[in-house]
């Protein structure tokens, strides 16, 4: 009788421990990175009448899976495009990219003179008191960030 009772208690303790381990594991997997990290975003201030602005930022894929950025939008602009500045034979031009692909662990820097976001057709005047909301559609889910409008240094960065 008492043997049976104690084995029931032992079984209950083991089950409780298993549940504790499972819930700890679940908590850890929630904290594990499962989407892109977008940091350091900013928008260089441009003249009030300028219709087009740029945005610079870093995108990191901390996951073990490839992630694709398929669309970017902003409530302050009609359209957001991914551009790359390419200098060929001393001539600088911009090429449009339809999407951005990030390999596991890859970090892409969007900066002046390289990959950047082109914010097309401003809907309101933006000053250094404003931040621009950027909504990213990715294969790992949506991400929204806010990029402050800042005065660019003389050298452009
Ligand atoms: Cu551009």
Structural commentary:
A hairpin with a 2-residue loop joins strand 4 and strand 5. Strands 1, 2, 3, 4, 5, 6, 7, 8, 9 and 10 form a 10-stranded mixed β-sheet that branches. 19% of the residues lie in helices and 48% in strands. It has 2 domains: 1-32; 37-150, Sandwich (Immunoglobulin-like). With 157 residues, it is of the alpha+beta class. Bound molecules: copper (II) ion (CU). Copper (II) ion (CU) is lined by residues 83, 94, 116, 118.
Instruction: Indicate the overall shape.
Output: elongated
Please summarize the sheet with the most strands.
10 strands, mixed
Bound molecules: copper (II) ion
Distance between the termini: 79 Å
CATH H-level superfamily of the largest domain: PCu(A)C copper chaperone
Uncertain residue segments:
none
CATH architecture of the largest domain: Sandwich
Q: Looking at CATH, which topology of the largest domain would you report? A: Immunoglobulin-like
Element pattern in H and E: HEEEEEEEEEE
Helical content (DSSP H or I, runs of 4+): 10-25%
Q: Work out the helix count.
A: 1
Rg value: 24 Å
């Amino acid at each position: 009788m008492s043997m049976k009772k104690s084995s029931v208690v032992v079984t209950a303790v083991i089950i409780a421990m298993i549940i504790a381990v499972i819930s700890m594991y679940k908590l850890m997997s929630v904290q594990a990175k499962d989407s892109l990290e977008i940091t350091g975003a900013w928008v260089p201030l441009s003249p009030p009448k300028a219709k087009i602005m740029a945005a610079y930022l870093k995108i990191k894929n901390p996951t073990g899976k490839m992630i694709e950025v398929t669309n970017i939008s902003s409530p302050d602009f009609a359209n957001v495009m991914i551009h790359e500045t390419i200098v060929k034979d001393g001539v600088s031009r911009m090429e449009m990219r339809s999407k951005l692909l990030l390999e596991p662990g890859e970090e892409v820097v969007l900066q002046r003179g390289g990959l950047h976001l082109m914010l097309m057709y401003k809907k309101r005047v933006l000053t250094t008191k404003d931040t621009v909301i950027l909504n990213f559609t990715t294969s790992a889910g949506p991400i929204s960030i806010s990029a402050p409008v800042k005065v660019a240094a003389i050298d452009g960065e």
